[in-house]
Amino acid sequence: MAGPLAWHRFATLADASEALAEAVAIRLKDLLAGQGRALLAVPGGTTPAGFLAALGQHDLPWEQVTLLPTDERFVAADDAASNERMIRAQFAPLAEGRASFLSFHEHGSDIEAAAAVLCAKLAELPQIDLLVSGMGADGHIASLFPGAEAAFNAVPDSGIVVARPPGLPPRLSLSPARLLGAGWASLLVSGTAKEAVLKAAPERGQQPLPVDLLLGSARGLDVYWAKE
Ligand SMILES: O=C1O[C@H](COP(=O)(O)O)[C@@H](O)[C@H](O)[C@H]1O
Fold first, then answer.
1. Which InterPro entries does the UniProt record give (predicted)?
2. Which pLDDT tens digits describe the chain residue by residue (228 residues)?
3. Is the complex ipTM more than 0.85?
4. In the beta sheet, which residues pair with residue 100?
5. Strand, coil or helix: what is 185?
6. With a 6 A CB cut-off, is 56 part of the ligand 1 pocket?
7. Is the CB of 50 under 6 A from ligand 1?
8. Between the CA of residue 209 and those of 29, 161, 188, 204, 214, what are the distances in Å?
9. Cβ(222)–Cβ(24) below 8 Å
10. Measuring from atom 9 of ligand 1, which residue has the nearest CA?
11. Dist. CA 81 → ligand 1 center (Å)
12. Domains, the chain, ordered by start
């Protein structure tokens, strides 16, 4: 059964980003007080830049926090398309070397081999504590794209999915099981088109989109939505 779905609605992406950064910082503070470390997954793409910048301004013992991307494009680390490149540019504690980062880059030039290396690294880590996901207008989350369900629902789950979206560089994505295993999950999106994708979930029936995994998560979901 799906857990509680909470909508937090804002006029601007800047407002939504500030509010989400505050919510994540509060949760990080509690986690660090209780377990001394925390694992935070953050999205790539264009939407999270303000959120990452705002989160980095919070006064926290960042050396106890490890970040990882929800997904990565299989490109060079300094490529303009790299999610890690964007995250490092926006999130000050990383640029300053205060927080740790699990990179999806530099695991060789063969994507399947790189996925195997990452799976092994993930297997050594605890479950993700906090997940901030993004979503594309087509309903993809991380790099789990509509139509590729056979690849990302593989059994047994290895934690990493290799995605080959048509016309785009291949990607490495956290698997549905990894994403849904997070202790707390949130989704940061803006615009009425993405809002419509979310609102239409109950009508999708037998043809769900990847984002429906989050919407139906037993642990619930906090949606941070901005009108523009
Ligand atoms: O390709 C990706 O797309 C989604 C959404 O990106 P946005 O630019 O529309 O915000 C993102 O969440 C994912 O991490 C990224 O690799």
1. 6-phosphogluconolactonase_DevB (IPR005900), 6PGL (IPR039104), Glc/Gal-6P_isomerase (IPR006148), NagB/RpiA_transferase-like (IPR037171)
2. 999 999 999 999 999 999 999 999 999 999 999 999 999 999 999 999 999 999 999 999 999 999 999 999 999 999 999 999 999 999 999 999 999 999 999 999 999 999 999 999 999 999 999 999 999 999 999 999 999 999 988 888 889 999 999 999 999 999 999 999 999 999 999 999 999 999 999 999 999 999 999 999 999 999 999 999
3. yes
4. 66
5. strand
6. no
7. no
8. 33, 16, 17, 8, 10
9. no
10. 136
11. 11
12. 5-226 (3.40.50.1360)
CA torsion sign for 194, 103, 116, 127 is negative
Candidate of 42, 51, 52, 83 to mutate for ligand 1, largest count of ligand atoms within 8 Å of Cβ: 83
Q: Could you tell me the pTM of the whole model?
A: 0.98
Query: Could you tell me if the CB of 72 is within 6 A of ligand 1?
Result: no
Question: How far apart (Å, rounded) are the C-alpha atoms in residues 183 and 1?
Answer: 16
Atom of ligand 1 nearest to the CA of 134: 12
- Strand order from edge to edge, sheet including 71-73: 71-73, 171-174, 160-163
Ligand 1 center–CA 12 separation, angstroms: 18
